[in-house]
Amino acid sequence: MKAVRSMVLVSNDPESLARGAQEVYRSFKEEVQSYGLENEISLTMAGEVGRKDIAPMVIVYPEAVVYGPVSREDVHTIVEEHLYKGRVASNLQAPARELTGRIAWLSARKGTLPAEKRIVLERAGLIDPDDIHDYIAHDGYTALGKALTEMTPASVIAEIENSGLRGRGGAGFPTGSKWKFVSKTVSDKKYVICNADESEPGTFKDRLILEGDPHTIVEAMVIAGYAVGADEGYIYVRGEYHLAQRRLAEAIRQARGMGFLGKNIFGSNFNFDIHVHSGAGAYICGEETALIESIEGKRGEPRSRPPYPTTHGLWGKPTAVNNVETLANITAILRHGAGWYRQLGTINSPGTKVYTILGNVNVTGLIEVPMGITLREVIAIYAKGMKDNATFKLAQTGGSSGSIIPASLQDTPMDFDSFGRAGVSLGSGALLVCDENTCVVDLARVLLNFFRVESCGKCNPCRIGNQRAYEILGNIAEGTGTMKDLDDLQKISGFLYQLSNCGLGQTAGTPIRDVLAHFRAEVEAHVRLKVCPTGVCPMSGKRTPVL
Known about the structure:
547 residues; alpha/beta; Glutaredoxin; Rossmann fold; Ubiquitin-like (UB roll); four-stranded mixed sheet; 13% strand
């Protein structure tokens, strides 16, 4: 099968459908097949993506050429001229001056898709992860060589700062700033930790990086150690990731053998070594201070902060803790420069983001796309639309701790600042896409059950608040809830965020907050009318246990 070289989107909003978008789509399918291009052209129907007066609209990537309005009779010309002969059918092209908003921005990005641009996953699937020579053949360890022979620790940190790289674990804290804090802390010993305890439900991006390109994490950790003044690192891997652990151990063994780990790396005076530490299935150990406690052999419970790990981390020493995806950006930034990296993504959230797509869509899986893509684009282009032509209702970002995104926000650019202004969070990168058959009360109840089970129990707001919220949501689902319960849920959500000791408790209230903010009418229907609009909740009888 040949690689897909072009992507065609046909709008299917109500106005487009009324004007024959389905016929246009079918004609494209027939014409593409007649030219033998079915393995080279990806054809998808997308939601409302632009102006109604040029509907049905067709967008062809990677050129981002917009045609419209397109009739069935126009399809042959577009396929023959643009897709077969490679030249724009200018007579059918929508006037550029009339395009506004998102479509105008897309059209300005000539030669790029709102699409996969692999940095983090550039080698995954292309190299043999067990062969260091294959990694070296694909520019492996050149960034480390550059750092140790051409740059000072301060200039490495400055390059990461200038790139604008922000933590991909969910918080979005500037990576360069974190490294600078550690580097400026005076200590006889410092550490670097890779947080690979990927325990968010529905998230498996870090696993793909670790299994497909383990050396990029090893190389990035050595660079981080050089930058902050550390000589030892730990990779804390989720216990269930057996293949990832094996490949990391092999990568470390090979790197030691080639002189990329150990003493006098690249003939310098810099020494660094790495250990792999397996987790034991505790979700709470994804929190950086609980992870540190676990490495030290203690029970995995979050520490009170301040002080922070940057000054008092592993065994009380300054420690740089970074997520797998964050570290996977480091080598590319040093190889190509901060300016190159800033050409991708948005001004305040440069680079790419890796997402896992799950739920009621036609295609699930994993993608890496520039920061700033919208949820609508992800669903239309990569998920190939909603399953069974269902209506999009909501998406949850970042596993259990992420926000619930309503349909009204599906055109909000997915970057840290845009989502922050909209009152939601980007999370770790899992996108659970749900259709109109999803009950928000049932969804919130399942999430609160997860939090109450995974809570370490150290602080009262989290231990008691999650249990109480779960019980209230159970009553609402069964038709015995009251309007006071909604007020109580709102209060519990606030208490969880304000008073919990760590991120688990603080984000546990997010599903409650988002459901009440965006779907209050549906929740009130459960209480006032004793009706579940989606027919999911039992509304009476014995409570269905959540396992």
